[in-house]
Amino acid sequence: MSCQARFDKAVEIVQNLPKGGPIQPSQDQQLFFYKHYKQATIGDVNCARPGMLDFTGKAKWDAWKEVEGMSQEDAQIAYVKKLLEVLREAGTDEANTYIASIESIE
């Protein structure tokens, strides 16, 4: 299994999910994707925590900080597993197509 290729496909799917469509990750799931994407692509947090009035920025920074020390490959694997879970939960034809496109990558 190519971890990187599956991760790249999963990122493409998450980034292109239509707003208001049948597959909508919750805010917690979106934060999960965010922190694992950052850890997988950058590594540990490398910037200062946003100011106290930047609530969204702080939530994202705090989420990313939670996975500090996780390897980039483990972050990629967690990202893909979570997306497959979200897609299976949705259970739509579109979701099944996405699942097949990820699982077909060797």
Automatic annotation (TrEMBL):
It holds the Pfam family ACBP. One of its GO terms (molecular function) is fatty-acyl-CoA binding. This is Acyl-CoA-binding protein. Residues 3-92 form the ACB domain. It comes from the Eukaryota. Coiled coil: none annotated. Belongs to the ACBP family. GO terms for biological process: fatty acid metabolic process. Keywords: Lipid-binding.
